[in-house]
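FIELD: query
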Amino acid sequence: MKKGLLLAITVFLSFYLNGQDIVKFKKGYVGISIGPTIYTGSEKGIPFVVTDPNSNLPETLSLKPGDLGLTINFIDAGYTLWRNWGISLKWQGGAHLYQNSNEELTSMFGSVMIGPMYSISINEKISLDFKARVGRMYLGSRYSAAFAGSSIESTNDYYNLGIEGVSTFRYHFAKKWSWINSIEFQKHLSDSSVEKISRVNLTTGIGFRF
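FIELD: result
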């Protein structure tokens, strides 16, 4: 009887202590982040349709290297599976907006990506994550212009495979919450050997730890 009770207590304490370790070490997080995006690819002109057949007016707005925009990671998540290795997931959207007296251009992009993650815990407050992701990327544009006697409109949508490398700094300011800061290098795997589509994103946000 005593041996059975001792065994039961030992098993209970084992589960309790393991449970305490699991609570203390948060394996995953999911968050949202926002920040500037810098286009680093080749200049991307916007094909357009001229509704006035007698017009020769060229477009003037385009997406150029160095142009700034805004990006949002609606889902920015990671989970450690074994030792320091895990998996990461991201759902992203963003845009560059241009306007002058006669023209408007919105260049949009987005992605859904997944890949491996290597996470390092510096201490109880700080973690560093290194991620490599692959997934489906989108680049689109909406262009319109109004000149004397002419109207120009264009819509362009482009989907392809993409890759990215990410470094993330996470500061755990509370038991279940982190401040997330990332730098992301993204590239569309274009079929064209001339046109290059790439960007650098700098994001900051908040994450829930679990």
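FIELD: remark
The beta strands are 28-39, 49-50, 68-82, 85-99, 103-121, 126-147, 150-174, 177-188, 198-209.
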